[in-house]
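Lecture 7 notes: from sequence to structure.
We start with the chain below.
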Amino acid sequence: MNAETQQRILDAVDAGFEAQLATTRDFVAIPSTRGAEGPCQDMIGDLLRARGYEVDDWHIKVDDLKDLRGFGPIEHDFSKARTVVGTYRPATEAGKSLILQGHCDVVPAGPLELWETPPFSPVIKDGKMFGRGACDMKSGTIGALYALDAIKAAGLRPTARIHFQSVIEEESTGVGALSTLQRGYRADACFIPEPTGGKMVRSQVGVIWFRLRVKGHPTHVAFAGSGSNAIMAAYHLVHALQKLEIEWNERAKADKHFKTLNHPINFNPGIIKGGDWASSVPAWCDVDCRIAVLPGWSVADHQKEIAACVAAASRNHRFLANNPPEIEWSGFLSEGYELTNAAEPEAAFGKAFNKVYGGMPEDLVFTALTDTRFYGLNHGIPSLCFGASGGEMHGFNEYVDLDSLKKSTKAMALFIAEWCGVEKA
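Predicted structure tokens for the same chain:
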């Protein structure tokens, strides 16, 4: 691809950027929390149909996925869960095929009064777009769509098959991405434009979600010593798991990528519910937890370690010794992933990056996870993850930096053209 062709694509991204931002605003405005992603999938389906893609829009069946590698248990109503894939088929087969994927699910916004602007009324100010999902990762998904648009606007068309995939459940199990593989979608490479701050994800953690279900013995608080407080017992178990976190971080010092980080394994008790009455010693407490594992670590073996840690801590507790808590695996059961066998797509992306940013992309050792793992681990499809800069993901006042979004869109467009090949339309 010569410099003139590259420049036509870059100019087309510039020309279409205001439209890209308008579409992104509309997408961010949809409150697509877990179980409510349908309107976002409707919007993506409409956008793909308007552009002439073949659209496959289906309801996900858990029974089709439950025996596949990386499946995480679903606890909520899944009857409306859908995946949408738009497929471009070339007139001339000459390049390499590609999956472009984004997730449309977002985490809850939390107390609305703690946002400076409403989370689902996106606002652009100071070169940033604010809103829940603006950064993670709705701007990236729409950016991928407009990267394809830019190639067309430049008078070109790709010469390889492209699947544009919009998935759900990235924030809790990953079964949306898994459903595309179960459906049979494959390509020579995958590209996921998560917000990585302009760096390439080299290695990422896996995640285990679990719930501690702790029992207590209720009594009137006036006689609290004769009962057993389930909430306080849960804290006892949390403290034990914090020690396990320390042990796992010691092991991480031997990992070739994560040894560069001070504390890559993060344990988080994220939800706590318990008790029925302020003047009653609580008889129950549930704590939903998240902990990371590194690439190459067995999820099953580390589940056993979690269970052993909880059992040992329970034996040292007056009430739990005879009333042990239950552990429920409540979402992610995900392996870590290291990008390997990706020299060809990385070289193609390196050319695109150099044209837009100059130099070569820095590596990112990622203490969160992405859907790239399914493609690499399950099917050996090299899966790149690169995107814009932003902040406050999963927090208040989430935002994406618009200059970085334009640059990442340009890099995507050039990568698609380089990897898939282009010809005059």
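Points to note: The longest strand covers residues 206-215. The chain has a mean pLDDT of 97.
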